[in-house]
């Protein structure tokens, strides 16, 4: 289960929490007060006491208010559209806000998933590529943005497929590459390579859906890579997302977009999982729904 806590003390935007499980330095948590969820970042961990900085007003926050930790750190969403946006320090898109100021507890997604960008492939099927090699290019404001093989990719890979030149959204599939195995591997080494590749793909998909960072980089690249996260962990946590934690805003948005394409309403989703609001879905529930709906989408 996700680590939870309760407010122990409040001094302006610095809050002390008492927690019931492992917490990482720089991990993000949400403190609930008056129906709003306030985003905060862990500054220090001392035993079961966690000191966090809340990114907005703590007015009305009281001792005993609940908090829940996400299992991931503050990250940045990268992709086409960044150069045309106005962001605050948390990468909220200020053009999407209601009124002059963001409401407390209100967060917006950084990119426009529905906007299409002209993609030009720079590699072809059969090409040998390695980390940071260019696979394609997207132009924004006359600035070419390169889509590259992930920096953490090891060894030489072969391009298996690549999208044709055309317009795509920032969430579209662009290319896949295949890792080459060295000659002369014995059966044990080969099984290890297969396991490593399987873990690489699984961790990357989980990271994309849960808003976290994979321990290893996926062999499938997109126009919106996720930023890397590092940190010092307390109580032995390894940095993997907890599937029982609340679904991330990005995961819920992806689910809603997928459901809309399938003709499924938010009310049907809530009824399916017995929740009052979509924000109450866990990562496991959200992932299960995404898997179910993906099979219903008509290409």
Could you characterize the architecture of this molecule?
- The chain is of the alpha+beta class and 299 residues long.
- It has 3 domains: 4-73, Thrombin, subunit H (Beta Barrel); 116-222, OB fold (Dihydrolipoamide Acetyltransferase, E2P); 249-294, no CATH class.
- The chain has 4 helices and 14 strands.
- The protein has helices at 187-210, 249-262, 266-273, 283-294, and strands spanning 4-11, 14-19, 27-33, 36-46, 49-54, 66-73, 116-121, 128-129, 134-140, 143-148, 157-162, 166-169, 173-179, 220-222.
- The chain has a 6-stranded antiparallel β-barrel. The protein has a 4-stranded antiparallel beta sheet with strand order 10-9-7-12, with no helix packed on it. The protein has a 4-stranded antiparallel beta sheet with strand order 8-11-13-14, with no helix packed on it.
- Helix 2 packs parallel to helix 4.
- The longest helix is centred in the middle third of the chain and has 24 residues, at 187-210.
- The relative contact order is 0.13.
- The model is unreliable at 212-243 (pLDDT under 50).
Summary, kept brief:
With 299 residues, the protein is α+β, with helices and mostly antiparallel strands.
Keywords for this structure?
4-stranded antiparallel sheet; 299 residues; alpha+beta; Thrombin, subunit H; 3 domains
Radius of gyration over all CA atoms, rounded: 21 Å
Secondary-structure element order, N to C: EEEEEEEEEEEEEHEHHH
| Overall tally of domains | 3
What structural class should be given to the helix and strand makeup? alpha+beta
Proportion of beta-strand residues? 25-35%
User: CATH superfamily of the largest domain, called what?
Assistant: RNA polymerase II/Efflux pump adaptor protein, barrel-sandwich hybrid domain
Helix fraction, binned, reads 10-25%
């Amino acid at each position: 289960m996700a680590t939870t806590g309760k407010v122990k003390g409040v001094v302006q935007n610095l809050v002390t929490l008492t927690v019931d499980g492992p917490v990482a330095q720089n991990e993000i948590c949400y403190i609930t007060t008056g129906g709003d969820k306030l985003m905060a970042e862990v500054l220090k961990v001392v035993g079961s006491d966690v000191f966090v900085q809340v990114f907005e007003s703590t007015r009305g926050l009281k001792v005993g208010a609940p908090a829940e930790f996400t299992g991931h750190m503050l990250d940045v969403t990268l992709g086409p559209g960044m150069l045309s946006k106005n962001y605050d320090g948390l990468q909220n898109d200020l053009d999407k806000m209601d009124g002059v100021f963001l409401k407390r507890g209100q967060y917006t997604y950084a990119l426009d998933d529905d906007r299409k960008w002209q993609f030009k492939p720079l590699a072809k099927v059969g090409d040998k590529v390695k980390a940071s090699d260019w696979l394609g290019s997207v132009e924004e404001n006359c600035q070419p943005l390169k889509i590259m093989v992930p920096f953490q990719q090891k060894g030489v890979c072969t391009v298996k497929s690549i999208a044709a030149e055309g317009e795509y959204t920032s969430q579209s599939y662009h290319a896949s590459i295949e890792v080459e195995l060295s000659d002369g591997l014995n059966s044990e080494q080969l099984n290890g390579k297969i396991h490593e590749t399987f873990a690489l793909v699984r961790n990357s998909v989980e990271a994309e859906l849960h808003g976290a960072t994979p321990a290893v980089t996926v062999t499938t690249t997109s126009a919106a890579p996720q930023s890397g996260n590092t940190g010092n962990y307390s109580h032995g946590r390894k940095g993997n997302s907890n599937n029982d934690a609340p679904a991330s805003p990005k995961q819920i948005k992806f689910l809603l977009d997928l459901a809309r394409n399938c003709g499924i309403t938010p009310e049907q989703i809530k009824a399916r999982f017995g929740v009052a609001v979509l924000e109450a879905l866990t990562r496991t529930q959200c992932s299960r729904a995404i898997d179910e709906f993906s099979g219903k989408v008509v290409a």
